[in-house]
Design a protein that fits this description.
This protein has 83 residues and is an alpha+beta fold. The protein is 33% helix and 18% strand. The strands form 2 sheets. A 3-stranded antiparallel sheet has the order 1-4-3. It has a two-stranded antiparallel sheet with strand order 2-5.
Length: 83
């Protein structure tokens, strides 16, 4: 099956930040945005660089559903009987 990804629609995270925010945050901040999935669609690794689509959006953490203690079976078990 042929990969139909058009690499020209991808730009580096730094270029994307300049377009979206007008400045480039620190590399640590960019890494956190990527790791915590605050950019949609998610950035893709091309060689040594992460790149994202030109039309990607910054969604931040506010749009993510809050994590509940009930979501994690291990936490449920610990809170219910302590072991």
């Amino acid at each position: 099956m042929e990969d139909k990804t058009n690499h020209s629609e991808y730009i580096t995270l730094q270029e994307w930040c300049t377009l979206k925010f007008g400045y480039v945050p620190s590399p640590t901040t960019l890494s956190q945005y990527r790791k915590t999935k605050q950019i949609y669609p998610l950035p893709v690794r091309f060689g040594r660089k992460y790149m994202c689509r030109r039309d990607a959006e910054f969604i931040g953490l506010n749009d993510m559903p809050p994590e509940s203690a009930n979501d994690d079976p291990l936490l449920n078990r610990i809170f219910s009987n302590g072991s």
